[in-house]
């Protein structure tokens, strides 16, 4: 049975806690954790890597229903994402995703229709991708303890 959610459900709280020099643990009120740190630190994701992973995961989740409907619930998919940072401006000017799927059971026309459907689904409902494409306002407030 699918989990029911309502409009009165509190949104998930997200935060990071410093655990060392340039090391943080990202947490959610649902109990999830992710280790974050500098690129040279083993066992952590950098913030930029998390951004890329969020994009790839969003694309995968946005295409999951049409793909599972046509390929079955146990289809395999890997979404690779890459993009070098422009360190002079501290931005990622381009992020590239590659979705790897085995479509060999479908004829060429069915493959083309499914790829088009996947692209439309991701363009329509991937919040992360839509936000990156549109840009977003980001604010920072520093709360000071006296």
Automatic annotation (TrEMBL):
It comes from the Bacteria. Pfam families: OsmC. InterPro entries: KH_dom-like_a/b, OsmC/Ohr_fam, OsmC/Ohrsf. Gene3D superfamilies: 3.30.300.20. This is OsmC family protein. It comes from Rhodococcus opacus M213.
């Amino acid at each position: 049975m699918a989990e029911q959610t309502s409009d009165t459900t509190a949104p998930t709280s997200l935060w990071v806690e410093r655990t060392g020099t340039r090391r943080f643990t990202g947490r959610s009120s649902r109990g999830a954790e992710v280790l974050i740190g500098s690129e040279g630190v083993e066992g952590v994701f950098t913030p930029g890597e998390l951004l890329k992973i969020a994009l790839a995961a969003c694309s995968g989740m946005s295409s999951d229903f049409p793909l599972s409907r046509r390929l079955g619930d146990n289809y395999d998919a890997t979404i690779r994402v890459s993009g070098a940072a422009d360190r002079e401006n501290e931005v990622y000017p381009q992020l590239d995703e590659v979705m790897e799927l085995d479509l060999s059971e479908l004829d060429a026309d069915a493959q083309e229709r499914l790829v088009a459907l996947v692209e439309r689904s991701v363009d329509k409902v991937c919040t992360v991708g839509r936000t990156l494409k549109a840009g977003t306002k980001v604010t920072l407030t520093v709360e000071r303890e006296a």
